[in-house]
Specification:
single chain, alpha/beta, about 40% helix
Length: about 425
């Protein structure tokens, strides 16, 4: 079965999602936990079906496509999804918390409480793991969810959502609580302007996708996903430590948004440090786009996968075994470069100088800043949030891993006894 190309309005689907969201919001804590526990169990019991559906997507994508690693599911990755659901179940619900409470002099009892968003719309590309992460977070927080996955992951998403619907059926909850929209691109703009039915939109994917959603949506949008991550190796760095961190940040999983894109190296240590990363980078055939100073050093080492950097190679999210390298003359120049090219995702400094570290952590404007650690740790599960919908790179409402705690809004509840103003 090929991806859908249905040319029809999605408004009836969204209306049903709005209605179903009220149902999920009214469920008890015990019911939500039971629902997700059963979902985790069903994923584990249906690994073969999930992998077969995923294979149908994988064979349609070229091996050279950097999206392929994100598209691929394995038994280990499915088990990781199971674990993330269980972690979400174990977290306290963000819904129904009394955030502020006061009794007015006239006797009014005023409370600010957390409540579900309502209907959360998520637009994403070749990332079937997002399907499970989004659904578990939204159901746990009492929200309905509308999914618009990319055509590259069509079979995977259909399989996963069918399992979700089976669990909803078992618990006598409307299937429309979780809606998977057709992949027809012509229907995306209809979703972006459906503010009568969808309360918040979260795009997760390429910069082009995020820009398109932001520019065309009338629904409030949380930007997630695009990462242009830098690492500055200071003159005060432990160079062996720096080499290990830089290699890990680049090669451990290059297709994800928290992988290293640009390595900035202080000129006082460049001739010593750059040769230290060549063996680790060469093992993965990492293509390095180097500025003139870095190119001269790396060329002397005989590094095979070396090119001169162009301006376009800075501020570029590679999502593959590629990175750029630039030699800088000071911390200030490194900070200026990061300010110029950063997507405000994750940035790191490698240094043993406390004052320098403090300046970097305080000055750099990003969702996550690191000292002497890999940027690869920017992740909802790692940060103790169970899972994430994505990494928010904006400042309003949420920043960093967009997870359970941010899938609620606020409501003021006022109780009186005849007071007038």
């Amino acid at each position: 079965m090929e991806p859908e190309t249905i040319k029809q309005s999605i408004i009836p689907i969204l209306k049903q999602a709005r209605k179903a969201a009220k149902e999920i919001a009214s469920l008890s804590e015990e019911k939500k936990k039971s629902l997700l526990t059963d979902l985790a169990d069903r994923l584990r019991r249906n690994k073969i079906d999930i992998l077969e559906a995923n294979y149908q997507d994988l064979i349609r994508m070229e091996d050279e496509n950097p999206k392929k690693d994100r598209l691929k599911l394995t038994e280990e990755r499915i088990e990781g999804l199971v674990n993330s659901i269980q972690a979400v179940v174990a977290l306290p619900s963000p819904d129904g918390k009394v955030l502020q409470e006061v009794v007015h002099p006239n006797g009014l009892h005023i409370q600010k409480v957390s409540v579900p968003m309502g209907v959360v719309g998520v637009i994403y590309e070749a990332r079937p793991n997002v399907t499970i992460d989004v659904v578990s977070l939204c159901l746990r927080s009492g929200n309905g969810v509308v999914l618009r996955g990319g055509s590259d992951a069509y079979h995977s998403n259909v399989c996963l959502v069918s399992l979700i619907h089976e669990v909803l059926d078992t618990h006598h909850i409307s299937r429309e609580t979780v809606c998977l929209l057709p992949t027809d691109r012509e229907l995306v703009k209809e979703l972006l302007t459906a503010d009568a039915f969808v309360d918040i939109l979260i795009p997760r994917g390429s910069r082009q996708l995020i820009d398109f959603v932001r520019e065309n949506a009338s629904i409030p949008t949380i930007e997630t996903g695009a990462g242009v991550c830098h690492m500055y190796v200071s003159e005060h760095a432990d160079l062996e430590k720096a080499a290990q961190i830089a290699i890990n940040a680049k090669v451990s999983r290059p297709s994800v948004c928290n992988s290293l894109d640009t390595l900035l190296v202080d000129q006082s240590v460049a001739s010593y440090f750059l040769p230290m990363i060549t063996e680790g980078m060469k093992a993965y055939e990492v293509e390095i786009f180097a500025d003139e100073q870095a190119y001269t050093v790396l060329q002397k080492t005989g590094y095979e996968f070396l090119s001169r950097a162009a301006e376009v190679d800075f501020g570029r999210e590679f999502l593959s075994f590629k990175c750029s390298v630039k030699v800088v003359d000071s911390l200030q120049q490194a900070l200026h470069h990061i300010e110029t090219y950063s997507s405000k995702h994750s940035e790191a400094i490698i240094s043993e100088n406390k004052r320098e570290i403090d300046i970097f952590l305080r000055t750099v404007d990003a969702a996550a800043v690191y000292a002497n650690a890999s940027t690869r740790f920017t992740d909802g599960e790692v940060f103790g949030l169970g899972a994430e919908i994505g990494i928010s790179t904006q400042k309003l409402h949420a920043r960093g891993p967009f997870a359970l705690e941010k899938l609620v809004t606020e409501k003021w509840i006022v109780r009186g006894n005849g007071q007038t103003r």
